[in-house]
């Protein structure tokens, strides 16, 4: 018995010491959420239609390139009204076998209707998958940007299982405007061939009959003076198909241009370098436009073959160049974003919430302690020791897991205080019943713990399952409540069943022939 007691108390002491280590000092080990620390709360919508249109444009370009390479450039090729497909009018002399092979090879995800014109429409399941992947990619891209920015304990998650909304919570942000700009920036890099340039859009399209050709697009750009100040605008007619895009980037960093001004250098991955090298080698002397977020940043002439690197010049500040490089490294958003909600939480509100939460917790703890002492007498001391240890272990577990403590999380702690003695109540009542039946003190304690165990496990397990659902489908504050409630319930089972039993065993070991128990 003595050896068993020593093992039990050694385990309890070790767990308690670990909890104190992980919770001290609380201001560094316990991370506070948005509602306690202050910060910004954003709800974004990913415009998934942009990703669908991009997929259709890529397919159109592949079909156009293949037909042209075979000597049968299409007469017309444009997106359908739904933007989920396209209409192709092949040249009259197009060989049927060539067209069929290109359709079979290039359009496996499309439902194709063939006739004088070929209508290709994305299959519904493919559209759903593209939209879902756009939200997932946007989620990861935003998370990468926030992580590189250095915001501590952010909450970035999808709202709902298949929704197009993303919730972003950034506690303790010192510069919320800059963070919002980083999230908002699409930063989609494209390098495109330049067809022509003009000071106005009308002048640009004068040679094309006032219409933009199907495979071209008009993109604006700034005119800068020698000091880098914007002095006007000019318009570029660019090929719609990009030579390389942000998807081909390997890295981006702040650098300097030839005049010593801040710029952004980028390097390409092997596939992007191969495409870039082939294009620049075949178009020496031509101009190419570096397009960022549908705006021409620069349009240099190709002086020689370029393989795996380039530079983006413009009227950048040092901070602006750093931010652009960060966004490019984190990846481009697959679709544009609409802000549905933007809320700022002040730190003063958080301090007030913490003070009220602590007051409520202490009052609740005091009431429970007093009740257990009055109702269960000496055994109440046992329950109160287990309850205090429960609070210490709970804070230690939060610190160890790096969980974020929110206002609902504090509510979960307070609820745990009330529920922590529930298992003790079940055990103590069973012990009372056994004593009333004439059992010895030792047998009553043993039977009380044994027979209450199944009820304790059942009651706590059902609550833990509910908390897990809250954690899986809830937003940040609800997750905080679920985390503290789940941890608290697990710890309360440990303290009520293991620690309380160890206390009883220690007391009874000193009273081998005990005939009464203060309960």
How does this structure look, described?
The protein is of the alpha+beta class. The chain folds into three domains: 2-33 and 346-510, Multidrug efflux transporter AcrB transmembrane fold, CATH 1.20.1640.10; 49-127, 2-Layer Sandwich (Gyrase A, domain 2); 187-319, Gyrase A, domain 2 (2-Layer Sandwich), CATH 3.30.1360.200. 54% of the residues lie in helices and 21% in strands. It contains 16 helices and 19 strands. The chain has helices at residues 2-23, 26-29, 34-37, 49-69, 96-106, 124-149, 176-184, 201-204, 270-282, 318-330, 347-376, 378-401, 407-420, 422-436, 441-473, 476-510; strands at 31-32, 39-46, 76-79, 85-89, 110-113, 118-122, 155-159, 165-171, 189-198, 216-224, 230-239, 244-245, 249-256, 262-268, 288-292, 296-298, 309-312, 337-345, 404-405. The strands form five sheets. Strands 9, 10, 11, 12, 15 and 16 form a six-stranded antiparallel beta sheet that branches. Strands 7-8-2-18 form a four-stranded antiparallel beta sheet. Strands 3-4-6-5 form a four-stranded antiparallel beta sheet. A hairpin with a 5-residue loop joins strand 13 (249-256) and strand 14. Helix 11 (347-376) packs parallel to helix 13 (407-420). The longest helix has 35 residues, at 476-510. It is elongated and about 105 Å long. The model has no long low-confidence stretch (mean pLDDT 82).
